[in-house]
Amino acid sequence: MRTLHLFPGQGDFELRVLRDWLATRSTARDLAAEVFAAVDRAAAEAGLPAIGPIALGTEPPDGRESVDGPPGAHQLALFGACLTVHRAAAASGRAPDRLLGVSFGEVGALTAAGVFELTDGARIAAEVGRLLPRDGGLTWIGAGEAAVREFLDEPDVAIACVNSRTECILAGPVPALERVAKLATAHGLPAVRVQVPFYAHHPALIPAAATLAAFVRDLPCHPPNLPVYSAAHLRTYQHPSAVPELLGECLTRPVRLPKALRLASGNRPAVLLEAGTGSALGRSARQVLPTATVLSLPDLGSTP
After folding, report:
1. Do 94 and 60 meet the contact criterion of CB atoms below 8 Å apart?
2. Of 105, 131, 102, which is closest to residue 214 (Cα–Cα)?
3. CA 213 from chain center: how many Å?
4. CA R_g for the chain
5. What is the pLDDT along the chain (304 residues), one digit of tens a residue?
């Protein structure tokens, strides 16, 4: 049975979950220290405060405090947490056969596969945080893509993520998102703002995508040592020369998680581990792949 590590996006992340999980696991703490040392090298270069002492301290910020920090800090913390969980799971006998990057998680998945060195992956994470616009946001809608398109009539709002047949995430300016949420409610559909002050997977980010591609082009890219599936491109990353443009385009292309999960799993029973601190990605995976065994951080109880 295949084992996939799923690298999530930014909407479901709490450093305090990582703190509690690391508290009794010495090997995982050592791995976290290695990962966050690289994260802090990238943070220093980006003019950001050290992330490791905050993320691995006794009182890390909660999710709201994390995303409201300086651009790039939240992304570096999430990148570090995901690489820590991935490496700790692999060290405990749950090494993956394949990796799936979802939204921002594509940076972590590519780094886990050796396409980027750890510090370079962190540099890219910080750059993504710098490029994401902070004049808008994301809204979760409790409906599938077809149902959302029936009432979506805001040209500045895009379907950013299709999570499952019953969940979508919209991206755009806050006033337009508020109007869409009212329409959704009028149609009897739940609508909830995602607690991040930025947005992605939107056509307005075409210039940012070009900037990110240029940034990545200046870094060494290596062939992946594991298949890395992209939830935005619905394909694997293969030749290193194509990585910069493909990664940049993740800022503009929508994520289609059901198709990506079926592709990455071969539509066969598999073990899926959410390599982060949340469970939203795993919840969607259970809906899409009911025969899969889906694990999140609390399920790694035997990890040393």
Report:
1. no
2. 131
3. 18
4. 18
5. 899 999 999 988 888 889 889 988 888 999 999 999 999 999 999 999 999 998 888 887 765 566 668 899 999 999 999 999 999 999 989 999 999 999 999 999 999 999 999 999 999 999 999 999 998 999 999 999 999 999 898 999 999 999 999 999 999 999 999 999 999 999 999 999 998 889 999 999 999 999 999 999 999 999 999 999 999 999 999 999 999 999 999 999 999 999 999 999 998 889 999 999 999 999 999 999 999 999 988 887 644 4
175, 123 contact by CB (below 8 A): no
Count of Cβ atoms closer than 10 Å to residue 225 Cβ: 10
146 contacts: CB under 8 Å, gap ≥ 6: none
Give the separation between CA 104 and CA 146, rounded to whole angstroms.
25
Residues 6 or more apart from 294 whose CB is under 8 A from it? 272, 274, 282, 285, 286
CA contacts within 13 A on the Cβ side of 34: 14
Q: Quote the CA–CA distance of 60 and 35 in Å, as a whole number.
A: 17
d(CA 47, CA 82): 22
Residue 108 parent element (H or E): helix 105-112
| CB contact set of 83 (below 8 Å; sequence gap of 6+) | 35, 108, 111, 112, 118, 121
Cα separation, 175 vs 33, in Å, equals 41
CB 132 within 8 A of CB 198: yes
Q: How far apart are CA 206 and CA 251, in angstroms?
A: 8
Q: Which pair of tokens denotes residue 34?
A: 């290695």
Look-up of token digits 């298949």: 227
- Name the amino acid, one letter, at 26: S
DSSP letter for each residue of 34-58? HHHHHHHHHHHHTT---SHHHHTSS
Which pTM value belongs to this model? 0.95
